[in-house]
Amino acid sequence: MSKTFGSLTHPEITAQPAALAKALEQLEAQRGWVDKYIGNSAFDEVIFIGSGSSYYQALTMAATFRKWLGRSASAQPSSEIFLFRDQTVARGRNVLLVGVSRSGESTEVILALESVKDVPGWTTCGITCHEDSKMAQIAECLLSPLGKELSTVMTKSLSSMTFLMQAAIAKASGDAKLQAELQEVVRMDEAVVAQADAAAQQLVNGNAEFANYIYLGMGAYYGLSLEASLKIKEMSYVWTEAYGTLEFRHGPKSIIQPGSLVCVIVSETARKYELKVAEEMQAYGAHVLLLTAEKGADTAFADTVVELGGKELSDEARSVLYLPLLQYVGYYTALKRNVDPDAPRNLTQVVKL
Predict the structure, then answer these.
(1) How far is CA 168 from CA 26, 38, 49, 101, 298, in A?
(2) Phi then psi for 157, rounded to 5 degrees?
(3) Cα-based angle 162, 166, 171 (whole degrees, multiple of 5)
(4) Rounded to 5 degrees, what angle do the CA atoms 147, 99, 110 make?
């Protein structure tokens, strides 16, 4: 194995605490953006759009928006807006379209934003890590200053952008408790990242290679499960899938076999039901990994339990605390398979049509 394998990816995952702290600082400098866009109740619908990882974080952003603000929001792949807009969004609504792109250069998000610039009732904005990008030129963007990455796969960029948008939503809500929760996430993150690094190494190197990888999550965590599945697929070329936790029982569970890894991103809202699914998968022979705010008697059955803390936080605010372990699992699996996670085959940082 080359000594340079993963030399970009690991430091970028590890740098998340600083990226989150800087994102929160940046938000204070862009409070006007919050009032103009996310906090503006004149919009009937807010649509977060992205491609790949950016779409998956858009799902978490939209779920957070609906829960914390009680207003209508959805997430869509960018291509659905510029190719199938009338099938995706009802006509005659006052819509805020929020582009989500690490680079701000993805062809699909640019095409989507440009496609509605002259459509009555549509307003555009965005979130990115690059202030001089094409997207930032055509739409006013919220900026994650330390989200920029050299590695192909998204790690700290995704965490910091997701967190930054959640912080903007919390600010728009005017709820001091939600804003305090995100301050607590920043405080916790350094210890969480260190713990996740160690736990991922132990999981990957302490077990035989898993037959397949299944990630399960609900609510704001559904997008995280999709992102986790993509991350390990991008970095290490293993076959993996993601589902809503209870939906997995309706047919897809047939792929479980001895040696499967089933990772459940456990919420507090649906904890009882999610753990029942995990127990069922273990009975079929899967190695069950639980990511949870708190261990308990109800999690003792699992093969691996990673306790992240933050039980007092809302499920939504806790989202980014789950990401480091999910990213490190992909990273260490790649190294174990003698694959360079910095430069996955067939992939580039920016996808252009």
Answers:
(1) 10, 7, 17, 17, 35
(2) -65, -45
(3) 150
(4) 105
Q: Which of 214-223, 285-294, 344-353 has the lowest mean pLDDT?
A: 344-353
What SS3 string covers 172-201? HHCCHHHHHHHHHHHHHHHHHHHHHHHHHH
Q: Which residue has the tokens 């649509």?
A: 47
CATH code of 264's domain: 3.40.50.10490
Residue 181 contacts by C-beta under 8 Å, 6 or more apart in sequence? 170, 313, 314, 317
Digit-coded pLDDT (tens) for 174-214: 999 999 999 999 999 999 999 999 999 999 999 989 999 99
Based on the domain organization, do 63 and 105 belong to the same domain? yes
Q: Which domain holds residue 23?
A: 9-174
If residue 203 lies in a helix (H) or strand (E), which one and from where to where?
Answer: helix 176-205
Q: Within a domain: residue 182?
A: no
The burial of 346, by beta-carbon neighbours within 10 Å (0-12 exposed, 13-18 middle, 19 or more buried), is given as exposed
The model's pLDDT over 49-94, given as tens digits with 9 standing for 90+, comes to: 999 999 999 999 999 999 999 999 999 999 999 999 999 999 999 9
Residue 96 host element (H or E): strand 95-100
Q: Where are the beta strands (DSSP E) in 31-90?
A: 45-50, 73-77
Cα–Cα distance list, 311 to 268, 271, 315, 327 (Å): 8, 12, 8, 22
Last residue within a domain, chosen from 141, 174, 207: 174
- Total tally of structural domains belonging to the chain: 2
pTM: 0.96
Does 291 lie in the same domain as 210?
yes
SS3 347: coil
For residues 227 and 155, membership in a common domain is answered with no
What gap in Å lies between CA 50 and CA 336, rounded to an integer?
31
